[in-house]
Design brief:
signal, eight-stranded antiparallel β-sheet, 15 strands, single chain, mainly beta, 241 residues, elongated, LPXTG cell wall anchor domain-containing protein, 39% strand, five-stranded antiparallel β-sheet, 7% helix, 2 helices
């Protein structure tokens, strides 16, 4: 973690041997999720002719005020006229939102996580047919005393190109409800924590202080085909001997 090098995350992830993508039926999604939205999404590298990859997140999620647990459905779609070939979806958490599990996917090793993120999973897809979509059940926790963001990049199977990226986009509320069983959060809304004053978010570490959402978004677009925000990857710290 003490040194960095500029490189695209190419095939160094330790991917568990899941043989099939887990598809969710409509009943598997959290009951309180609103309509799916591509808010905060943008095309990055040019996709092959006839392939148009996008992602969707629910407009609304609900966080249990006791356990801080929440459920999110992440969807990747091919809205084009041709099959995608091998691709992968990343599901990455920032600040108060921590991704605990994504059904059918593998944890991203800590040294390969995007800069500033706290957790993430990679979902390999052998092929996404034209007009098809895959949805994934995301288990997460959300510290309601912080801002929380999620990011869904869609890359080539080797990670050398990123065709689409949704986020980092926030979930939050401007009307906290600490005495209720759960707090509803809306996509694209900065979180306003409940507490004395409620005017300022607690600090969440040096990287987060330096990179608020707007700066992060700008840096992603600026990076472009050079590998985006995970192009500066941390190596594991040398073991002390």
């Amino acid at each position: 973690m003490s040194s960095r090098r500029t490189t695209g995350v190419a095939g160094s992830l330790v991917v568990a041997s899941f043989s099939a993508v887990v598809l969710l039926s409509g009943t598997a999604a959290a009951e309180d999720e609103g309509p799916a939205s591509g808010k905060g999404g943008k095309a990055v590298d040019e996709a092959p002719a006839g392939v148009r990859l996008t992602t969707l997140l629910p407009e609304k999620i609900s966080v249990d005020n006791g356990s801080e647990k929440t459920a999110i459905t992440a969807t990747v779609k091919n809205e084009g006229s041709k099959d995608s070939g091998k691709i992968r979806l990343w599901v990455v958490g920032f600040d108060g939102l921590t991704v605990k599990n994504v059904q059918g996917c593998s944890p991203i090793p800590e040294n390969n996580l995007p800069e500033g993120s706290n957790s993430g999973f990679t979902c390999p897809i052998d092929n996404l047919a034209a007009g098809a979509s895959n949805s994934y059940a995301v288990d997460a926790t959300y510290d309601l005393q912080k801002a929380g963001k999620i990011c869904l990049p869609v890359q080539t199977g080797d990670g050398k190109k990123t065709f689409w990226q949704q986020g980092p986009v926030p979930f939050g509320t401007t009307n906290p409800s600490p005495n209720a069983p759960a707090t509803p959060l809306l996509l694209g809304t900065d979180n306003k924590p409940a507490g004395p004053g409620g005017k300022e978010l607690p600090k969440t570490g040096p990287a987060r202080d330096v990179l608020p959402l707007g700066a992060v978004g700008a840096s992603l677009l600026a990076a472009g085909a050079a590998g985006l925000w995970w192009s500066q990857r941390r190596r594991p710290a040398p073991q002390e001997g």
